[in-house]
Amino acid sequence: MILHIHLSILFSYIALLHLISITLAQSENYIIHMNLSAMPKSFTTHHTWYQSTLSSALDNSQFTTTNNLNSQTSSKLIYTYTHVMNGFSANLSPEEHESLKTLPGYISSLPDLPVKLDTTYSPQFLGLNPSKGAWHDSNFGNDVIVGLIDTGVWPESDSFKDHGMTKLPSKWKGQCENSIHFKKSLCNRKLIGAKFFNKGLLAKDPNITLGLNSTRDTEGHGTHTSTTAAGSRVDEASFFGYAAGTASGIASNSRVAMYKAIWEGGRLSSDVVAAIDAAISDGVDVLSLSFGVDDVPLYEDPVAIATFAAMEKGVFVTTSAGNEGPEHKTIHNGTPWVITVAAGTMDRDFQGTLTLGNGNTIMGLSLYIGKFPSNNVPIVFMGLCDNVKELKKVKSKIVVCEDKNGTSAYDQLNNLVEAKCFGAVLISNVSDASLTQNFASIIINPINGEIVKAYTKSYNSNSKNSSSIANMSFKKTVFGTKPAPSVDSYSSRGPSKSCPFVLKPDVTAPGTSILAAWPTNVLVSHLGTKEALSNFNMISGTSMACPHVAGVAALLKGAHSDWSPAAIRSAIMTTSDILDNTKKHIKDIGKGNKVATPFALGAGHVNPNRALDPGLVYDVGVQDYVNLLCALNYSHKNITTITRSSSNDCSKPSLDLNYPSFIAFFDSGNSSSKTIHEFRRTVTNVGEGQTIYVVSITPIKGFSISVIPNKLVFHEKNEKLSFKLRIGVDRMTKLKKVSFGYLSWMDVKHVVRSPIVITTMK
Ligand SMILES: *[C@@H]1O[C@H](CO)[C@@H](O)[C@H](O)[C@H]1NC(C)=O
Ligand SMILES: *[C@@H]1O[C@H](CO)[C@@H](O)[C@H](O)[C@H]1NC(C)=O
Ligand SMILES: *[C@@H]1O[C@H](CO)[C@@H](O)[C@H](O)[C@H]1NC(C)=O
Ligand SMILES: *[C@@H]1O[C@H](CO)[C@@H](O)[C@H](O)[C@H]1NC(C)=O
Ligand SMILES: *[C@@H]1O[C@H](CO)[C@@H](O)[C@H](O)[C@H]1NC(C)=O
Ligand SMILES: *[C@@H]1O[C@H](CO)[C@@H](O)[C@H](O)[C@H]1NC(C)=O
Ligand SMILES: *[C@@H]1O[C@H](CO)[C@@H](O)[C@H](O)[C@H]1NC(C)=O
Ligand SMILES: *[C@@H]1O[C@H](CO)[C@@H](O)[C@H](O)[C@H]1NC(C)=O
Ligand SMILES: *[C@@H]1O[C@H](CO)[C@@H](O)[C@H](O)[C@H]1NC(C)=O
Ligand SMILES: *[C@@H]1O[C@H](CO)[C@@H](O)[C@H](O)[C@H]1NC(C)=O
Fold it and tell me: What start and end residues bound the annotated signal peptide (predicted)?
C-alpha cells in the first residue's frame, strides 16, 4: 500500500508538470505576502486593500483595459488570507506579477507549490486503557477539536457515529458546508466541520478533474487519517478478516473537522493555506497535516508559514516526516514550531501458512484478501522469477521465488500476476505484508526459504518422482511479535534541511499496517479482475503516524487545557520510549535492524500515558522562534513572511532554541583544536510543587559531556530553572557520522529524557 501512495504522488506530479508546461506562458498562481503596517488608513479592511493593490497591478501592466478591471480583479484573486499570513493568492501573468512587485506594501511572492501526501489495535499498542491514564484523565479527549487538512471524509462511516456525545463546544465557530453528495445534515456531534478548498487548483486549470467538487472523500486518505486521530469506537471492524476487533481513534471523544484541500487532480499550497486559515478561525485545537513540501527554506514553505500563525494562536500542529527513507536528509516539515512524526511498526503480524507435502508447516507474512483452495497444489522453485515466459509454464503451481541479486519481491509479484500463476512463496527479507494483498502469496524469511527449497529441489532433481505438493491458508493475525516497535524503512530521516539546528523528526508513532475507516466505494485492492471494497482499510506511511500524535495531543489538551503547543510537544517527546518489547534499544528496519538513531526515531516512540505527567517541560515562546529565524541570517523580508510582523526583534539572535532535544555539528577529521558546543535550556516544573531533579547522561564515546548545574531544586509548581549542556571533543580522532546519547532529568517519579545527537553531517 505504501507503493500505491507513492504511485499516486508520482502521478499527480507528472500531471502537474504537464499542466505547467502548457499554461506557463500565460499565467501562474502566486501567494503574495503584504506588509499590513503599510496599509493606508483609507482602507477599512485588508481585503479591500489587497483588491485595490491587485487592480493597480493589472492596470499598470498593459494587458488590461480599465473598463473590465473590477471583474478582472475578482477573477484574478483566488483567496484573501486572514490569520495565517498577511496577503492573498492570485493568478497572474508575468507582466502583472512584475507590476505588483513595484506597489507599496508588497513584500514577497511565492509560486503556488504542489504539496506531497505522504488498527483497531494501535490504541492498545500505545498502552491506552479506559480505566486509567490518558484516556481516563482526558475523558477520551472530550470536547477537543481535531482539524485535518486532507482529502475529505466519508461521513457515513461508523467511525463518525456520535452516540453519547455532548453538545458542540461553544467556542466552535466552524460548520459543515453543503457540497455535491455531501448535505450538511450528514454532520453530527462527532463530525462537526466540513469545508473544501479548490479555487487555487481551478485558477491554475479550470478544466482540471477534481474527483468530486465536494468535501466527500473520493480517495480514502482523509477518512483514514481523521478516524485514526479521533474516530468513534466501532465493534467488529476488520480488513477482510485480518486485524479483526474493535476499531477506535486515539481520542475517541474528540470532534473532527475536515478541510479538504487535497484533490485527485492536484494539491496546491494556495488551497492548503486557505484551509489552515479557515481551521484557525473556526477554532480547532489540534491540526493534523499528513503532507509536506520538499526542499524549500522555511520562508518559502507554505506549511511552515501557515503553521507559525497556528502556533501563535495556541493550535497544536502535527505533521508527517515523509515516506522517502531510509537515507538521511529526506525529511520534510523539519519546522521548529510543529511536531514532526516518523513511522514505526507494531507487534502485530498478518500471516499465511504453507504446509508442505512432507508435513513441514511454515509461517510467513501475508495480507492476501482472497480465499485459497487448500488441496495439494504442486509447488516448484523458479529462482529469481524474473522470466514471465518461464513462469507461464508453471502457472498452475505454487511458485517459489528467491529475492536476490537486486530483484525485489515487488517485481516478482508483478511477473507472477502477469503469468497468472496460482500462488507463490516469496523468500525475502521484506516486512511489508501488504505486497501480497492481491495475489495468493506468502513472504517467508531466508532461513525457512532453505527448507522450502530443499523440499522442492528433491522434486526437480528427479522428475519421475511424484510431484512436490503444498497447501496454503491465510488470514491469521498474530500479536506479540518481537522486536516491536521498529522504525520502518520508508520513514524519512533527519537532519532537517530547512533548519538543521533543531533535531528532527521529533517522535515515532505507529504507521505501518494501520486499520481505519475507508469510503465504501473507493477500491482498497484488486483481486484478479474483481474490485475489492471494504469499510476499513489497512495502509502504511508517515501519513498514518501523524494522526496518532494528533490524537495523543488531543488527549493531553483534554487533560491539560492550559498547556502551550510547545509544552505538549515537550511532554510527548521527553516521555517517549526508546526500548522495544525485548527491552533493547528500538531498531531501524531501513538500516538492517541496527539501533535506530534519533535521525530515524526522534526522541522515541510515543507513550501517551506517560506524556500525561512529564514532570518538566521545555516551553518555547513566539519570540524564541523569532530569535532562531534571526540567527538563520534570514532577511527582514524573509522573517516577516513567516511572522507577519513588520517589526521583528532581532536583538538576541540564537540558534539554541529551548527544545527538548540537542544536535551538535562538528567538523570531521580535524585534530587541531578542541571544540566545545554549549546549549542553554530552561525547564518548567509542571509536576506537583517541591521536587529535586538530578541529571543523568549516557556517555558518548569520544566526547566529554557535562551539565551545569547537575541538580535542579524546585520549590513550587510552574517554577522555571535553567541549565547548560556542554559537549567537548576528547580526542580529535575521526568522528562518526552520527553519535548519540541521552540527557535525563530524574526525580522520584519522572524521567525527562532528551536525545543528544553529535554529527558531522552539515
Ligand atoms: C512595513 O511597513 C512599515 C511602515 O511603512 C515599515 O516600517 C516596515 O519596515 C515595513 N516592513 C517590511 C518588511 O517591509
Ligand atoms: C464547486 O462548488 C461550489 C459551491 O459548492 C461552486 O461555487 C463552484 O463553482 C463549484 N466548482 C466547480 C468546478 O464545479
Ligand atoms: C478548457 O476547456 C475548454 C473547452 O474544451 C478549452 O477551450 C480551454 O482552452 C481549456 N482551458 C485550458 C486552460 O486548458
Ligand atoms: C491439504 O489440505 C487437504 C484438505 O484439508 C488435506 O487433505 C491435505 O493433506 C493437505 N495437504 C498438505 C500437503 O498438507
Ligand atoms: C536477509 O537478512 C539476512 C540477515 O539479516 C542477511 O544475512 C541476508 O543477506 C538478507 N538477504 C537479502 C536478500 O537481503
Ligand atoms: C547477478 O547480477 C550480476 C550482475 O548484474 C550477473 O552477472 C549475475 O549473472 C546475476 N546472478 C544471477 C544468479 O542472476
Ligand atoms: C522425491 O524423491 C526423493 C529421492 O528420490 C525423495 O527423497 C523425496 O522424498 C521424494 N519426494 C516426494 C514428494 O515424494
Ligand atoms: C550567520 O552569519 C554570521 C555572521 O556572518 C555567521 O557567523 C553565522 O555562521 C551565520 N549563521 C548561519 C546559520 O549561517
Ligand atoms: C527572502 O529574502 C531575499 C533577500 O532579501 C529576497 O530576495 C526574497 O524575495 C525573500 N523571500 C521571501 C519569500 O521572503
Ligand atoms: C581544521 O581546523 C583548522 C583550524 O580550526 C582549519 O584551519 C582547517 O582548515 C581545518 N581542517 C579541516 C580538514 O577541516
Answer: 1-25
Among residues 55, 525, 543, 661, the one annotated as catalytic is: 543
Is residue 107 pLDDT above 90, yes or no? yes
Cell of 336: 521548529
Regarding the beta carbon of 213 and ligand 2, being less than 6 Å apart is answered yes
Query: How does strand 191-196 pair with strand 255-260?
Result: parallel
**C-alpha cell, 489:** 524503512
Distance from CA of residue 518 to its chain's centroid? Answer: 18
DSSP-derived letter for residue 406 is T
CA 323 from centroid of its chain's CA atoms:
8
Is the CB–ligand 10 distance for residue 667 below 6 Å?
A: yes
Residue with more model confidence, 104 or 432: 104
Q: What secondary structure letter does DSSP report for 167?
A: P
Would you state the pLDDT for residue 4? 33
pTM reported for the whole predicted model: 0.88
CA distances from 226 to 249, 266, 311, 684 (A): 8, 20, 21, 32
Say whether 93 sits in a helix, a strand or coil. Answer: coil
Residue 600 grid coordinates: 530515524
Give the per-residue pLDDT at 406. Answer: 64
Indicate which residue of 150, 217, 349, 506 is catalytic: 150
If one counts every other C-beta atom within 10 angstroms of the C-beta of residue 179, the result is 18
Give me the pLDDT at residue 527, please: 67
- State the burial class of residue 305 (Cβ atoms within 10 Å of its Cβ: 0-12, 13-18, 19+): buried
Q: Which residues 6+ apart lie within 8 Å of 104 measured at CB?
A: 38, 53
Quote the strand ranges of 240-303, DSSP E: 242-247, 255-260, 286-289, 291-292
What's the gap in Å between 602 CA and the centre of ligand 5?
A: 26
Per-chain mean pLDDT for the chain:
90
